[in-house]
Design a protein that fits this description.
Elements (H helix, E strand, L loop, with lengths): L2 H13 L7 H13 L3 H11 L3 H27 L26 H15 L3 H20 L5 H40 L1 H5 L6
Length: 200
């Protein structure tokens, strides 16, 4: 075992809950680990419905970065499978999870992609809360035993690399893509938009 993996396991065991952990802490961590992810689509929907070309463009960019980052995660998992803690009998697990590769964390990648893109796009109103929520999710998923700490570091790294990859493409086609999606939105939801139930 190399030094980095040893450190990874040591940090995991420091954070991971045990059978003596108060049940309310484990229950709270389960909720955070499994359900806080829905804040990301909720925030993007709120940005879109709030209207404004700039906010909608940033929301679309978040989707592009997050989707590409998740695709990169899949390629990493295929090229190098890193077992989850419970797959090697390390620590304690308090939620069920498929025995697939742990690195990088998909949950961490989505939050990191969203928070990074929003903050660099100047949308702090949504970026800061998602950054805080993402840190909570990273902790919770280690706490309940389905991820290592370096899975979360890897997620942040993938998000940063993906943002950099998207940047030149966004500069060329971002405005066109956003306008196209707005046009589709207005066509598909013309009926409620015309009645003032949704913003145009």
């Amino acid at each position: 075992m190399n030094a980095l993996e040893a450190l990874n396991r040591t940090l995991f065991l420091t954070i991971n809950a045990t059978p003596s952990t108060p049940p309310w802490q484990i229950d709270a961590a389960r909720l955070i680990a499994d359900y806080l992810i829905y804040l990301v689509p909720a925030a993007l929907a709120a940005m879109w419905l709030a209207g404004g070309e700039r906010q909608r463009a940033v929301a679309v960019r978040v989707c592009c970065v997050a989707l590409l980052a998740l695709g990169i995660n899949q390629l990493i998992g295929l090229a190098w499978t890193h077992p989850r803690p419970f797959m090697i009998g390390l620590g304690h697990t308090f939620v069920e999870h498929a025995p697939d590769s742990s690195f990088p964390s998909d949950h961490g990648t989505v939050f990191a992609s969203a928070a990074l893109t929003l903050l660099l796009g100047g949308v702090r109103r949504y970026g800061v809360p998602l950054l805080i929520a993402g840190l909570a999710v990273a902790w919770a998923r280690i706490f309940v035993g389905v991820h290592f700490p370096l899975d979360m570091v890897g997620a942040a790294a993938v998000a940063c690399v993906t943002y950099a990859l998207i940047a030149p493409l966004w500069g060329r086609a971002g405005v066109t893509l956003t306008h196209s999606l707005v046009a589709v939105y207005r066509k598909l939801l013309a009926w409620p938009i015309d009645r003032g139930w949704l913003p145009s």
